[in-house]
Write a structure and sequence with these properties.
Layout: E1 2-6, H1 8-12, H2 21-32, E2 37-39, H3 45-51, E3 61-63, E4 68-70, E5 77-80, H4 85-97, E6 103-108, E7 111-116, H5 122-133, E8 139-141, E9 153-159, H6 162-176, E10 180-185, E11 195-200, H7 205-215, E12 222-227, H8 233-238, E13 241-244, H9 250-255, E14 258-259, H10 267-280
Parallel strand pairs: 1-2, 1-12, 7-8, 12-13, 13-14
Antiparallel strand pairs: 3-4, 4-5, 6-7, 6-9, 9-11, 10-11
Helix pairs in contact: 2-10, 4-6
């Protein structure tokens, strides 16, 4: 038997960042038959739950690039991988020295909070507007983000042009070494304004999937994963069967064992449906 894990944006979701009616119908049927399936996304569980509402996924989801393992129905976190406040404060100071303003997600006594101070560009504005439109309960406006960094930092996100973000990424790794992990990639929905995500070193999709599989007695199954972007590379490299959609970045396609159709043609669910059918026949 196999255990299937899919990325969301650019992989399982359509170009409008939604679960198509075809994918929803097939997954609902397969899950009822006993399919072991979940998702691993850069999105927070609040956003994942909104998109997958009504889909009968019983396993926890991997959210925020592996920073969390979260229950889809309640939003409760089974695991939180966050960096110590002092490290988060040092990275924030470095980001500001580069003249950039990050978004900061923390986890502490008040739960999950997502802080923003000011908007510097179109990409940042889209980020804030989308979360306001979806009534993200984490979103907080802060007069000074540095005053909100006493809790462990889950994610720091910087949205800007590629060149300054690449320079910042290099300096972060020079400062922090292997204490952090970063992902730099284009925003699929607003090209030209890439995102630099910064997490604790333990926050990665592969590590979270491994922990989830061990906790839910799935560790002896063959792991099949689906992805399209740089933040999916760790889980593709750890999987028994790594599958890239045809719209994936070149490095993801090179890391995959197989390349299937594009996300807008429901390629992931069609692959799972065919693969599952061959494995449940007597």
């Amino acid at each position: 038997m196999r255990f299937y894990v899919s990325d969301l944006d650019g992989t399982l979701l359509d170009p409008q960042a939604q679960l198509s009616s075809v994918t929803r119908a097939h997954l609902t049927e397969l899950l009822a038959e006993g399919l072991a399936f979940t998702v691993a996304s850069a999105r927070h569980v609040v956003s994942i739950a909104r998109i997958l509402d009504g889909l009968p996924i019983s396993l926890p989801v991997v959210s925020s690039n592996g920073a969390y393992i979260s229950d889809l129905r309640t939003g409760r976190h089974e695991l939180v991988n966050a960096m110590e406040p002092s490290l988060g404060q040092a990275i924030f100071a470095l980001v500001r020295r580069h003249g950039l303003m990050p978004f900061v997600a923390t986890h502490g006594a008040k739960g999950d909070q997502l802080f923003w101070q000011e908007v510097q560009n179109e990409g940042q504005q889209r980020f804030v507007t989308e979360r306001q439109r979806n009534a993200d309960p984490r979103l907080r406006h802060a007069a000074r983000i540095q005053d909100e960094l006493d809790d462990p930092l889950v994610t720091m996100l910087v949205v800007a042009r590629m060149e300054p973000l690449a320079a910042l990424q290099a300096e972060i790794h020079a400062l922090c070494g292997d204490r952090v992990t970063t992902h730099l990639a284009e925003d699929l929905y607003m090209p030209g304004w890439p995102w630099l995500n910064i997490h604790d070193r333990r926050a990665s999709k592969d590590q979270a999937i491994k922990t989830l599989a061990e906790r839910y007695a799935l560790h002896e199954r063959e792991l099949v994963v689906f992805g399209d972007q740089v933040n999916d590379l760790s889980m593709l490299k750890a999987a028994h069967h790594a599958v890239a959609v045809s719209n994936a970045s070149d490095d993801v396609k090179l890391a995959a064992h197989r390349v299937i159709g594009p996300h807008h043609e429901d390629a992931v669910v069609h692959f799972i449906r065919e693969d599952w059918a061959t494995r449940i026949k007597p």
